[in-house]
Amino acid sequence: MKRLLLPILIAAAGAANADSVLLGKTLIGKGASSEQARTAGGEPARLDRIDGDESSPAMEIWTYRLEGRSVTLWLVADKVVKASEERGGAARVDASSGTTRVTGAN
Question: Where are stretches of biased composition, namely Polar residues (predicted)?
Answer without folding.
Answer: 96-106
